[in-house]
Amino acid sequence: MSSIFRRKLPLRTITRTNKRKTFLDSFLKHPQKLYTCLPRPINQRPFSTKKFPEYEMPSITWGIMQGNKEKLVSKVIICDYLKSIGIVPDELEHLELPSTLEIMRERVEFLRKLGLTIDDINEYPLMLGYSVRKNAIPVLAYLERIGIEGSRLGEFVKVYPQCLHASVVIELVPVVKFLRGLDVDKDDIGGVLMKYPELLGFKLEGTMSTSVAYLVSIGVNPRDIGPIVTQYPYLLGMRVGTMIKPFVEYLVSLGVPKKVVARMLERRAYILGHDLEETVKLNVNCLLIFGISREALPCVIAQYPQILGLPLKAKLSSQQYFFNLKLKIDPDGFARVIERMPQIVSLHQHVILKPVEFLLGRGFSVEDVAKMIIKCPQLVALQVGLMKNSYYFFKSDMGRPMKELVDFPDYFTYSLESRIKPRYERLRSKLIKCSLAWLLNCSDQRFEERLYGDYIELESSGPSFCMGGKLEMSGSDIVSEEEMESDDETLYRRTVSLY
């Protein structure tokens, strides 16, 4: 038996065992010593490496080669140590543990210095099976080099401890190169991985590639993929067939053009994280229950995509009651307000009251204020200071009756210095009389055409959605397929004021 064991030991160890008996030989002749030594306190170090030269050969993996009985001794000692500090070693039963207690202590101390607690280690005890020198240090050094702060490495390992077993060259570097290929800024790589550390475990040819390809196929600009991933890297882990595609198809079925959906995802990619069945569809049904028309749903969603993930029933109930009590706006009028400005569901009530109190203080009746808010809900989000300036110019310089403000409350939403004053001066110089809407509700180019025209054209409303995804313009037929993309862009830019 002794000769067999020696063939497995290095020459240096064999020469030493000729001079004195080895630790293993003593237990072969007196196996009862195994049990008498185990209960002794660990801090006495009964099996010190100074006493037994067999343990003086450190290894970055498991140390020296051991026999079955010697492995059993080491395993029992290590498990007792882990139990003594509060770590449950059950999951380590079938794992090859280090050859010495000192190596295990080194691993535990290393993880503790990173900021992990005993509870964190118990969440994933297998992290004790990773070599500090061979696995942990190279991985953490690379993560720090690509932008993860050293003070947050412990947080990273806590969320994704499997990274300690990864190969830097084979697993980590390709993922980082993939992110850079998506145009994720080099300085943002660390932030992306901190948000979603599990990315390091994904295969490049799997979910990550297919999700990006699908987004591009529905019209997302390839140049925007990098910012999208930076903002919401979780989409790289979403399956197209079960998560992304059903979400997009549902919005299209509601009447939102696919091109508009693409624009929404470019700015608010996190809406993909809302559960389709449990959140999105319930919120859409909630909007219908509160009186929002089905035809208006596409505009509501396009203007305020966040509405798909809010606790909508509670918010709508609260705001509807407030509008009815304070502003004397009935539920039907409240539904019209939401259709025109869905952001109101998230607007604080004290913010809403400030412009309302200003209008009431200028002599408008409660009924007139209610009409003005239903026509132009943006009034409740305006700064009172700007409203004051516009109102005083309207009364002192323009000298128009207040009824015109009731008919066209949008007046308060235009810039006094850049639009109202310059255009009014042009009209006064030409002695032209017109409504506020004719004066303000058009582009600069159209205003010039109006000034030099031989007639005053009729006012028309802006663009609107048509169920099925096409765009309907007032006074014209449904646009052709060739004009579809540009019209969607026009719709989004002219009617959505989110960004």
Describe this entry's structure for a reader:
The structure is a single chain. With about 500 residues, the chain is mainly α. Helix content is about 55%, strand content about 0%. The protein has helices at about 1-5, 10-15, 25-30, 35, 70-85, 100-115, 120-125, 130-145, 155-160, 170-180, 190-195, 205-215, 225-230, 240-255, 260-265, 275-290, 295-305, 310-325, 330-340, 350-360, 365-375, 385-400, 405, 415-430, 435-440, 445-450, 485-495; strands spanning about 465, 470. A two-stranded antiparallel sheet has the order 1-2. Strand 1 (about 465) and strand 2 (about 470) form a beta hairpin. The longest helix is centred in the first third of the chain and has 17 residues, at about 70-85. About 25% of the residues are buried. The model is unreliable at about 1-65 and about 460-499 (pLDDT under 50).
Mean pLDDT: 81
Strand line-up of the largest beta sheet: 1-2
| Number of helical segments with 4 or more residues | 27
Helix fraction, binned, reads 55-70%
Overall 3D shape: elongated
Order of SSEs = HHHHHHHHHHHHHHHHHHHHHHHHHHEEH
Using the CA coordinates, give the radius of gyration: 36 Å
- Strand proportion, as a percent range, falls in under 5%
Low-confidence stretches: 1-65, 462-499
List how many beta strands DSSP finds.
Answer: 2
Distance between the termini: 79 Å
Question: Structural class of the secondary structure composition?
Answer: mainly alpha
Major sheet size, sense and barrel closure: 2 strands, antiparallel
